[in-house]
Amino acid sequence: MQALCKVEPAVGGIAIREVEQRSPGAGEIGIRVAAAGICGTDMQIWRWAPRMARRMQLPRVLGHEVSGEIESLGSGVTHLKIGDRVTLESHIYCGQCNTCRRGRAHLCENTRYPGIDIDGGFAPHVVVPSSIAWVNPPELPHEIAAMLEPFGIAVHASLAGSGVSGQSVLVNGCGPIGLMNVAAARALGARTVIAADPNPLRRTTALSMGADHVLDPGNEDTATRARALTGGLGVDVGIEYSGTEAGFRSVFDSLCKGADFRLVGAPPEAIPVDFTWWLLKCPTMINIHGRRIWDTWTVSTALVLEGKVDLRPIASHTLPLRDAAHGFDLILRGEALKPILVPG
Which residues pair with 215 in a beta bridge? Predict the structure, then answer.
């Protein structure tokens, strides 16, 4: 079968290749892929970020935001059936380590990922552990279901710490998950939602997803504007997605005293921090990693099914798998939010 693979340990280095379609082994399922989203992690792999280089064995079929239909079952799989429509949790957790046993499988010490450690879903068929399949209702379109995995990050970020209900929230960095966080914060009861991003397409989409105010960090000071929009107090919750030092600092400067600082976007390099500065403002620092398994999935799916969140504006392009490289180009040019790839 034809699949999109990372084939070279360099910037770019992706290509359609013929790969073998394998049958599921014990505890695994075979899925006929219906839709798969290009994610920020896929873009890191495209750029050949060092942490990816350390663990990937090439060639590797990419893709972990996957929705499809179960077409085969490996031995021992009894909780799923052929024909189930499923989305994949991208964290392949061991279930045995200390964090898994304490109910925090999203922080599994032995986490592996489709598209990195095993072949992923940028292909007509994929085989994965049955433990990471989330069964969707039949009425949920695959193109929407494929976005439940990243949407879960946004929901997790909204529910963490003091939550968002009744609070002012700044979402800094409006890539697909940041935009989803705008919608999640609005749906979960935020009083005011402020979105900041230099890309005009993202700012316009943020408004359609429920932002009350959008800021352009390239032309205005995010912290000054955020304080002005909150009566001079600063925001109750700052959620940082940009992964930049400037974004990190602007979110901190935007906070009121005792606020939540929720870090999602990982800075590529160490950021010097003056902890006296932090002690004076006294924020609660919360690191967001993935989604809680399966708590967040339950909330996320309900928000979509009940019409409280519409993810359709995020799916900016639908492309056949053979044109996947074009989807990467669109993202690199800032002209796409989330291209959805479909086999065929």
Answer: 196
Q: pTM for the complete prediction?
A: 0.96
Mean pLDDT taken over the chain: 96
| Pairing label, strands 317-320, 339-342 | parallel
Summarize pLDDT for 7-29 with one digit per residue, the tens. 999 999 999 999 999 999 999 99
275 φ, ψ (degrees, to nearest 5): -75, -20
CA separation for the pair 314, 317 (Å, rounded): 9
Domains of the chain: 2-147+315-342 (3.90.180.10), 154-287 (3.40.50.720)
The span from the CA of 28 to the CA of 199, in Å, is 41
- In sequence order, the β-bridge partners of residue 80 are none
C-beta contacts of 135-138 below 8 A and 24+ residues apart? 135/80, 135/84, 135/85, 135/86, 136/67, 136/85, 136/86, 136/87, 136/301, 137/85, 137/305, 138/85
